[in-house]
Amino acid sequence: MSATRDGWRRHLLLAFVIGAALLLVLSSAARAHERPGDAPAPPVPAPTARISSGTQYSIPPVRLVRDDGKVVFFPEELNDGRPVVLNFIFTTCSSICPLMSQTFAQFDSQLGADAHRVHLMSISIDPEEDTPARLREYAQKFHAGPEWQHYTGTVEASLAAQKAFNAWTWRGDKMGHTPLTLVRAAPGQPWLRIEGFVTPTELLKLYRKQLDRAAQGSVATR
Question: Which residues pair with 121 in a beta bridge?
């Protein structure tokens, strides 16, 4: 009986060692496929993500500074005629901001030839640190095209933009930042609000639905 028990223990120990070795090999293989500087893969949508539509926001008449150094009037940037997809980030964020930016990057890529038709906007919630130069460097990590622009400015202007969209960061706590994406098909149209993570594919579907609704509404009012 003792010999049987010892044999069973040896088999169990061997299975444990083999399993641990396999996990180590798989982990090493996954790291081998990662390139230095690669942005993290976009997350699977959180089951608690909330999507609400039909929301209108009052845009504050503040000025922001674009990543190319140009001072712009916020309402005009939002209302240049293109659909808008907007989020809030800061460059030293190491958790949700890179994930949201990677989602934007892949969403932009999936648009293909239609990418120039949309205006992607990322507004810094840490404007004291995020200079235009730092935002340009951050944007380059995600291969942002000319349709995707990053914005900074005064603390007051950043807070006004956050508060206008009922972003959780308006209280000034950047570490309490949570994922928020806003989509609007055209000036005057209601916003789609996405609270939580969303995949690039899901974001593309939601974006196209907003465009379809806006087109149908335009036809109905003629």
Answer: 86, 149
